[in-house]
Design a protein that fits this description.
six-stranded mixed beta sheet, three-stranded mixed beta sheet, 9 strands, 50% helix
Length: 264
Amino acid sequence: MTNPLLTSLEENGIATVTLNRPDLHNAFNDDLIWELTDTFTKLGANPDVRGVILTGAGKSFSAGADLNWMKEAASYSTTQNLRDAQNLSDMLNTVNRCPKPTIAIVTGATFGGGVGLVSCCDIAIAVDGSIFSLSEVRIGLTPATISPYVVAAIGERAARRYFLTAERFTAEEARRIGLVHETAPTLQAAFTLTHSIIKNILAGAPSAQTDAKALIASVVGREITEDLRADTALRIAERRGSTEGQEGLSAFLEKRKPTWSAEK
């Protein structure tokens, strides 16, 4: 049986995770969902990993849910359906909360849950010609499980259009509404752009990047209160006193690269 997910790790600490069901446009099923959860949990905990690239084998990034899997789920009890939905939610949450920087490289069809997966990554690049759709209402469903991540990425206004119409939109429109950060003319160009982004990631302090991701999650949507200001003051004070903070300051003053830098 072909592994639904492929993982490799380069010497520079960048892992590449590839959705590997190309004949089915990398559609989700139980196996792929479990593999994604397990893989991102392990990569997130691995101190040798500096970042993760997520992409898809074949012509598509991910066409969302596997139709055969969904057909089987149609006969499930409410309890069974809830279990499946929770597994999908757990996977998305694991990718979204991965403490390492994550980059999605998107090509071809990206529908439903595939859009959710892109939304869970920190950075996303789409190849020109890619097509996106939040297609759930066309088959009588809603994008419920992916909605927190998609709305965070594209905002309420765009969600009110694309959740309801399920219309397809282009890579350029995905960039305009915030689903992806950049577009590239070819897949090779997308990887070239990704390597440029990775160079910047590798210039940063690993634990500081982890803390920066946690900081965003902590402050987003919150009113600026005394408690929030106290929390952010504590976070920067702890960073300044940390080993990385001390090393970063020393390297800056001594006009040298810090110890974590790939460029010496």
